[in-house]
Design a protein that fits this description.
101 residues; mainly alpha; elongated
């Protein structure tokens, strides 16, 4: 009975089976997630107020947002913090994409 339960639990159902993501898709998703996390970290760091009102206007704020976004993307692509690498490894294990596909 346990063999039947195990095999049926590991087999995808015919209705609603989703295709396995490729390694490239997992890599891209992990990088995008790391960039998102970095953007959030930078945004929180920018909330610190040092009382500098010289460049305190909407244009400067928009520029800093764009600058932070580009920096987060670059850091994620280079794997600076390694979050994407860890996320990618975990997603690959969970999806079975690390089995040579």
């Amino acid at each position: 009975m346990s063999d039947t339960t195990i095999s049926s639990a590991s087999a995808p159902s015919a209705t609603g089976a989703s295709p396995k993501p490729t390694k490239a898709q997992i890599h891209e998703a992990a990088q995008k997630f790391e960039a998102l996390m970095l953007r959030q970290m930078l945004a929180q760091a920018r909330k610190v107020d040092f009382g500098n009102t010289l460049f305190d206007n909407k244009a400067a704020e928009n520029f800093r947002d764009m600058q932070d976004s580009k920096m987060a993307d670059t850091m994620a692509q280079r794997g600076t913090l390694g979050f994407a690498r860890m996320i990618e490894a975990q997603l690959a294990r969970q999806s079975g994409a690390d089995n040579g596909e």
